[in-house]
Design goal:
2 domains; homodimer; 35% helix; alpha/beta; Rossmann fold; nine-stranded mixed sheet; 445 residues
């Protein structure tokens, strides 16, 4: 059923999707019609299986094919499908390019990519060129060329390329989005966000191993901390802010500066847990422990993005959304709204979330929150599935994907040049001026 | 008694002060000896009178002379001295340059400057040239030349120029300083700080007036928001961080980028409270509502500084101090230390403050916390007084003062050039490599 959504159809359906929250009848909620989206997954490691888990909770999905070079991971994923009472999906495991055999199947509408970062690009491109919806896990781009290629291929094929960013689907985030759209914060001025996650026990596993001797993500992810210095993982932070700031839809990112601290955390970890005699004690990790990126937007807003993955710390996305009328801050879980909050005093966030509860989350909580990452994995895969079924663009589109990915390449460039400001490409080719928001407009995805 | 502290003496006394916490006998605490420091104040507005109030709580001070062009403010200050049972200080009120007659008195050891920002420079210079210790209220520099001039005059005259920054003397800050020096955070990596203070009712007073029709600080302070765009008030944020990061003492600020959001808050305030017909509704305020500055240090640390004074918000200095072993964050009043905190969980800050209570604060709490800004005004003026009495350099010296002031001029420059990185001058002329910390080393100031 892979829909021939061409550029013209995109614009048409985008316009329809932009009308508002009530264009879809409630009886299609949570897959209660009989159409199905036929989904495949390339990469059935931890993250791929998390998405699979959420897909299996949706009755309007068929899992047709799965691909992984690791036969054990593949078998485990196939078994999950069978355990869910469904037909065993065909497996592709014949070396690193077997995914090319999978993407051409004619019983697939969309394919999710959850492989190591260095494979995302060619796989996303292959998926779109095969006429399927592409849904790609989070990362950052190695170069701007990659981002441009995604845009070009998506425009040429008419196939969406959705960054599978679960943070945009978090309850709090979707409520803050409605607050912003309702004008609660006034005119938008500033935001802060980031990925502050102690990944040392992900980057080193088992013990202080990574690369060939590593396990799970340490096999491939850690090498990016050896050779690269920049905000390697910007999308959890920036995704929600981009949505709230209408990026590519009346606004855009214009310039970026990035500054990295020294790199100490990873080496210290190896020395502490592996000792100075361990071979990895000689590795020089290039990634600064804290990378600070500052973006200026066309409409005059500023955004700070932090990347902080090498040091001991509690998890935080450091989010703050600030306008002429007040601000929300994640780190103290509080909000301040002029004329409503007591003068100069923070208020707890929860009553505001309940007041501005997004329809998607109202439905979700009524029908039962499920899936990984607090339900956000369910909602993001659901959005991908529903977009396929309705033959409409994904609510995170290729321009969002390219823009968020580009932060990494621009951050590396700015840092390499001593924090020089670098210009953000306009991936929309000027259409950001007239494009309208498409995320979080409906009540069911 | 104005001491002839020349460059050579400075170095000698700095070395002595650097020995540690126990070189001064406890019987000089809180002015229990009979030596006195003879102090004058230029500018007896709100801030000047706050410092005067703290000086009058110290029995080892004499207030010899006061100066203000506003005879009423001057009389009020003189009356405070008399009410405290002391001799009425001589007043200087004969026009804006009468301070020049005051600084040459031979019964003054040190002079505090608490005038509008545009007067600080010439007054500080005059004070030092007259052979007195200069203590100057917080602001930011208009140009790097100013900063260099302070350094040059201080070196030539041997007179200190102390930024009267009270935040360095806050209880929490002094405890965090000890934590850092004790290695609790490990090697320093990153810090955040700022001045996030809704000043709209300071910048506009009464109503939406400022400038000639204004009151108190709105008479002069608001004009800086009209014509300038940068971090106008960096010292509350950066003072404590500079101390914790050993800036100018084994470390230094190397480069800075600065990015300003659009300017909306002040105009919105005028429109809301004065209406579109008010003359000030036509003023275009150039100061971005949120200014984000990022500094890279010679030892590889990064610092974010926020300036956010035009929008509704609760007060915060956004402080965060982060090292290889953990971090403190002001906004949730929490700390996380690897191996001590429960894995991944914040701990309340208070027990750590009590554990690392600075000797100055132990004494202060035992003898009674007093003076404005939670006692910090008392401690900063006390440090000024004690430095004079002991004929030693002030614990915040002219290099600190020049460096902190320079942030404003550099921030304005970077913003004007589209966030270009700008180089930080080394005001120490290379001595930062060998200079040792001088702040917070003793138990009594």
């Amino acid at each position: 059923m892979a829909p021939p959504v061409n550029r013209r159809n995109f614009i048409k359906t985008t316009a329809i999707a932009g009308i508002g929250a009530s264009i879809f009848s409630p009886n299609v909620l949570f897959g209660k019609d009989d159409r199905k989206a036929r989904i495949g997954i390339i990469g059935t490691g931890l993250q791929g299986r998390l998405m699979l888990d959420s897909l299996l909770m949706q009755s309007d999905t068929e899992i047709t094919a799965l691909c992984d070079i690791d036969r054990q991971a593949l078998a485990q994923a196939q078994d999950m499908v069978v355990q869910a009472g469904r037909k065993k999906p065909e497996g592709y495991s014949n070396g690193p390019h077997d995914y090319l055999n999978m993407v051409t199947r004619d019983d697939l509408d969309g394919i999710l990519v959850a492989t190591p970062w260095e494979w995302h690009q060619q796989m996303s491109v292959a998926v779109m060129k095969a006429g399927k919806y592409a849904g790609v896990e989070c990362r950052g781009a190695f170069s701007l060329n990659e981002c441009w290629e995604l845009v070009r291929v998506s425009e040429e094929t008419g196939m969406p390329c959705m960054m599978m960013e679960n943070h945009n689907y978090k309850r709090e985030i979707m409520a803050v989005l409605l607050m912003a759209r309702d004008g609660l914060f006034g005119e938008m001025i500033h935001a802060q966000c980031g990925y502050q996650h102690d990944l040392r026990r992900v980057k080193f596993r088992p013990g202080v191993e990574f690369g060939e001797k590593g396990e799970n993500e340490s096999v491939w992810r850690t090498n990016h901390s050896v050779g690269r210095n920049g905000d390697l993982y910007p999308t959890h932070g920036i995704g929600p802010i981009a949505s709230i700031f209408d990026i590519n839809r009346g606004n855009r990112f214009v310039t970026l500066t990035s500054t990295a601290s020294k790199a100490r955390g990873l080496k210290a970890f190896v020395l502490e847990h592996g000792g100075p005699g361990h071979p990895n004690a000689n590795v020089d990790f290039k990634l600064g422990d804290v990378v600070t990126t500052v973006i200026k937007c066309a409409n005059g807003e500023t955004v700070i993005i932090n990347h902080d993955t090498n040091l001991p710390r509690p998890y935080s996305n450091m989010r703050r959304v600030q306008g002429t009328n007040g601000l929300w801050m994640e780190d103290n879980n509080s909000i301040y709204i002029e004329g409503r909050s007591e003068y100069g005093a923070w208020e707890p966030m929860l009553p505001y979330i309940e007041e501005y509860e997004h329809p998607v989350w109202k439905t979700f909580m009524r029908e039962g929150v499920r899936g990984g990452h607090g339900g956000a994995d369910f909602l993001k895969t659901r959005a991908f599935v529903q977009s396929i079924k309705r033959k409409i663009p994904t609510p995170i589109d290729v321009y969002d994907t390219a823009t968020w990915l580009a932060i990494t390449a621009l951050s590396e460039k700015s840092i390499a040049m001593g924090s020089e400001p670098v210009k953000f490409p306009d991936f929309t080719g000027g259409k950001w001026v007239t494009n309208k928001p498409i995320f979080g407009l409906t009540e069911d995805y």
